[in-house]
Amino acid sequence: MPDVHGCPQFLVWVDKHFSDRSLILLGDLIHRGPDSRTCLQMALAWAEAGRATLLWGNHEYWVWDEGLRLEETQREDWFRSEEAELVSQYEDASEGLPELIRDMERFALLARPYCVEGEMLCAHAARPSLGLTADNILDNGYIWDSPELGLHPLPTNFFPALTYSVHGHSILKEPVVDLNNDHVVYLDLGSSKTVRFCVWDAENKRIIFYDD
C-alpha cells in the first residue's frame, strides 16, 4: 500500500477488500489529508496484531528525526510550531499532543526501512543502498529518492530470490509496473489530492484500484 497521507478511507477500503491478506504499508501515513490520527492508529493496530508490516516514509521519518528526538522540554514547542495541523487533528479527537507523541513512538518501534517477502523488496521511495550486511543501510535514499535518480541494484547477494521492488513516494499519473526491464513497481498516485489510489496484489502480480 502506498502513501495514504491522512486519508483513512483508503485504509478502510483495504480492510474491507483484503481482510484475509497480510499487508505492507509503504509509509507516509500522515500529513496533507484531514485525519492522520485515524490513519496512524489503524496502521499501528494492524502491525501490533501481526497483520501488517510498517515501513518508514519520509514524513514519519522527519517527525521522528526533527521532533521526537528532542529533549522532552523542547518537544512540545517543536510540535506546536512545526506540526500545528497534525497536533490539531489529534486535539480535535483526543487528548492531543501526548497521544500523538505516543503514537509516533509506537510507530518508530515497529517501522522498518525496508522488507523482503520472497521475490519482492518493499521500501518507501527506492531500494536501499546496503553495505556489508543486510542491516547496514548506507544512506536515506530509500525514503527520499525519486525514479529519475535511478535504482540501486536489487540486493540479491543477501536475498537471492529477489526479482523486483515496490515503492511509493513519487507521485505519478498512473502506476508503473515494469517487471522485465527495471524490475520495479511504483504506486503513488497523489491520493490525498486526486482521490485515486491503488495497491499491488503481490500474490497475483497486479494493480487493484480504489473504487468508492
Question: Would you give an account of this structure?
Answer:
The protein is of the alpha/beta class. The protein has eight helices and nine strands. The protein has helices at residues 9-17, 36-48, 58-68, 72-82, 84-93, 97-110, 141-144, 191-194; strands at residues 23-25, 52-54, 114-117, 120-123, 164-167, 176-178, 184-186, 198-201, 206-209. The strands form three sheets. Strands 3-4-5-7-6 form a five-stranded mixed beta sheet, with no helix packed on it. Strands 1-2 form a two-stranded parallel sheet. Strands 8-9 form a two-stranded antiparallel ribbon. The longest helix has 14 residues, at 97-110. The chain starts with 8 loop residues before the first helix and ends with a strand. The mean pLDDT is 96.
Strand content: 15-25%
The largest sheet is: 5 strands, mixed
Mean pLDDT: 96
Instruction: Give the overall shape.
Output: globular
Give me the secondary-structure category.
alpha/beta
The residue fraction in helices comes out at 25-40%
Q: Using DSSP, what is the number of strands? A: 9
- Span between termini: 17 Å
Uncertain parts:
none
With strands numbered from the N-terminus, the spatial order across the biggest sheet is 3-4-5-7-6
- Tally of helical runs: 8
Order of helices and strands: HEHEHHHHEEHEEEHEE
